Hints:
The complex is a heterodimer.
Chain A: H1 4-8, H2 13-23, H3 29-38, H4 41-44, H5 49-52, E1 62-64, E2 71-74, E3 79-87, H6 89-94, H7 96-112, E4 117-127, H8 134-154, E5 158-165, E6 174-184, E7 199-204, H9 214-218, H10 238-253, E8 257-262, H11 267-279, E9 282-286, H12 299-304, E10 310-315, H13 320-329, E11 334-341, E12 345-350, E13 353-359, H14 360-364, H15 377-383, H16 394-403, H17 411-414, E14 425-427, E15 435-438, E16 444-451, H18 453-458, H19 460-477, E17 481-490, H20 497-517, E18 521-527, E19 531-532, E20 537-538, E21 542-551, E22 568-572, H21 583-589, H22 601-616, E23 622-625, H23 630-642, E24 646-649, H24 660-665, E25 672-676, H25 678-691, E26 695-701, E27 705-710, E28 713-719, H26 720-734
Parallel strand pairs in A: 4-5, 9-12, 17-18, 24-27
Antiparallel strand pairs in A: 1-2, 2-3, 3-6, 4-6, 7-10, 7-11, 8-10, 9-11, 12-13, 14-15, 15-16, 16-21, 17-21, 19-20, 22-25, 22-26, 23-25, 24-26, 27-28
Helix pairs in contact in A: 7-8, 7-10, 8-10, 10-13, 16-26, 19-20, 19-22, 22-25, 23-26
Chain B: E1 2-7, H1 14-24, E2 28-33, E3 44-47, H2 68-77, E4 82-85, H3 87-94, E5 101-103, E6 111-119, E7 135-142, E8 146-148, H4 151-159, E9 163-168, E10 187-191, E11 197-200, H5 221-233
Parallel strand pairs in B: 1-2, 1-3, 3-4, 4-11
Antiparallel strand pairs in B: 5-8, 6-7, 6-9, 9-10, 10-11
Amino acid sequence: MVALNSILVELTEDEMKEAKRMLGREPNHLELAMIDAEWSEHCSYKSSKPVLKQLPTKGPRVIIGPGYDAGVVDVDDGYVVTLHIESHNHPSAIDPYGGAATGIGGVLRDILCMGTRPIALLDSLRFGSIEESAHSRWLFKHVVRGISDYGNCVGVPTVAGEVEFDDCFERNCLVDVVCLGLGKIDNLVLAEAKYPNDSVILVGGSTGRDGIHGVTFASRVLTEKSDEERSAVQIPDPFMKKLIIEATLEAIATGHVRGLKDLGGGGLTCGLSEMADKGGCGIDLELSKVHLREKDLSPIEIMISESQERMVFIIEQGHEKEVCEIFDKYELPHSIIGKVTDSGKLIVKMNGSELASLPAKVVANAPIIYRKAVEPDYIKKIRIVEKPSLPSNLSSVLLKMLSCPSIASKSWVYEQYDHEVGIRTVVKPGQGDASVLRLPNGTFLAIKADGNSKHCYIDPYNGSAGCLSEACRNLVSVGAEPLAFVDHLQFGNPGNPEVFWTFKESVRGLADYSKAIGLPCIGGKVSFYNEDKVKNMAIKPSPVIAAIGRIEKQEWITTMNLKHYGDHIVILGETKPEMGGSEYYEYIHGLIGGIAPRIDFDKEKATMHTILDTIRKGLVKAVHDVSKGGIAVALAEMCISGGIGASIDYSKIPAHDLRIDELLFSETHSRFIIEIDDNSIDEFLIIMKKVGIAYNIIGKVGGDTLKFNKNKEELISIPLSDLKDSWLNSIPKCMGESE
Amino acid sequence: MRVAIIQFPGSNCDFDTLHVLNNVMNVKANLVWHKSDDLRDYDAVILPGGFSYGDRLRAGIIAAHSPVMKEVRRMAKDGYPILGICNGFQILIESGLLPGALLRNSSLKFICKWVNLSVISNKAIFTHKIKKNHLLKMPIAHNEGRYFIEEDDLKELYKRDQIILKYADEYGKISERSNPNGSIDGIAGICNDEGNVFGLMPHPERASEKLLSPFNTNNGKIIFSSMIEYVKER
């Protein structure tokens, strides 16, 4: 099965030389295969590491930052939450059901192996046009089904997410999964082998040929032959995962688990070398003890197999029996496969005879690659575009915007996910800008994932900062103070200097924003090689951000639906003619280019602070941030979810000399729409006079129509039922399922 | 009183049900591993939701053969309250304690959303405190919840008043539109002829605290409180 040649080709000549130099000898075939797996871009971050250093990683609540399986944040009273993001882009592109399902499996294990219970999942999905492409519909349908079948069965609610459609994802769909964990600070476990003579126990699924070379597969571009690489996609088993979750948490409760690591990318090789390296120890491994699915697996295959649902436990010597009894209760296969040593080496034996002996340090620390970065030509060209002509019927434009799949209701997606299991979900999908979960200490945690590839393509720096900004604004909209974020950076081939430039710009944007706002990055992931030789196309730069925030009191939780007839509608923030990458330009006019929204960090901070302040004072009844589709779409969403209309005087929107379509559809950052009743408006206005950010009362809640007027002159008037129809039925219609 | 919540491998609403009984209903409840063969300490049994055995073969069928089910059968025969929620309902059907079948949803998709339920009968121990036609808001979350039964048996269910809950709209009207999964006659929950064994697809444990309800309701509580009062009066 494994042709040795195919292993050798992935390492570059320089890397081969470096491996030899570090070892002081010629590595044998097994050793080369192990180095190859761990030195893959996927496992080693060899291209991205130097760039990622810019991100701030410390904060008063951060207990563990990047470098471990998940970031850990203190949420008081001895409780911690853990957060991690993963993708399964390549596998999902060729096997959407299995690829998406195993993606969840991977991120669940990352949370679990910190010693915390996974309590929520989020999905950020990116596909080509589901209106035009049958292939994209197929990917979309089966990715969602894969997430649904796996997440629902494993009993972890999928509470939020986002979906974006763009032609650049036609062959490279992006499937990002975020997982949130909850645990006690005293029960945290690290992926370390620290104490010699401790036992190494492999628990869970048997090791087989699925997922062989998954990491090297993920570390190159897709070709016309990629469909033949289905063996690189693992087989999902959510039932086994559920048993592993319960057994692992029970095992940790014994107090004898001294190290824990999930086996994902790179299999035993990566898992064991990283544990030994982090703990400053070595591991002696006996391959004959590994429980196999097929008898004739070669040592190389055993060492790099990525078979799913496997965990490695480091158990305090003498307590193996106590822990294994728990695995027996759940009928989970397990075997003691090795021992922690003080040799600093990962030694692989088969029936006692040594097959490989590698310093853990060498395997776990790939040589860094300093990549060239060159600004792509398109960046300058694309900024200057001619304004499209003003459409005559803006009512029909707004309806079309609402039916744009990237904007339309995602209920077709989230109703396939169990978002309630665990009974923590207080603000559910569709109710607010972020989801809100209750924590056992009476506080609440808000969580949201965001991305915007269209903005990032035109302006990687501002676009990426904008993704983080949107995630923060979504948290603030539900009343949460942002605590931390994780990022997933998805780009094309890093060997292409133009691609690498967009990567560097993207990280710079995230770093500048997070430093300005004071928000630590507690982990993340980089996924390169998202391009496709068939169409010779790389994806647009696609950072996806997942951010968490804290809500101290129940009464601060805020939703987006308009509530009462006669209430005031207020906008915070100035609208600018930043139309580049907007859904209005791209979906309505087919125009890619222009100036993408930029962030004024001071204004952003002041605006978010004001929203939180007024929420806490009990002045606002609904909050919605303005993002995709601009003010018009944001208001329509507030009307639809509230089941009540609104009447807006668009000339009151703070702006300088904008054309009407720019006013309605610009995606400028740092804007919120809020609902305030008559009793609170005066106090609100007093606060606003002090903070120095643009704002205005732009209309009133009421009726069963959304109207945009100037003085008495009516520009747009759409009955609620029509808004609903466009927004709710668009995706079912695309999928051929509407009534 | 003491309630047993049975844990099968793959149950995932076990902790949620335990939380509601302990902390919302203030009743003693224990998680009982499916290999137990003794439930003599308990006054009622709940088979919680989830994916016992990963829904392999058919939802609920493997769990129906677990050792603990022998005891559940004995208690059912002796008139103790037995409640099956979602996967628990599927298990009650697969073990023959309730009639009919639960098929794949007509949409062929998993459905998670809040629905309205009309109380058709208060014959079940679990609805004996609720007025007929009363509306309850609860969420559903299932892939195989389409209740089906042969026509003659359906007539028998009606005759014996065993149909307890039907899906309805927000005004209580029962129609095709209010039926989320294609269940025959919109049936969401049934009981046995004696009224002590009750299965339903919706999740009362997810609807027992106002904080968790989009409608600020806690309608799920009445299912549990009816059971508790019955045991106390017995």
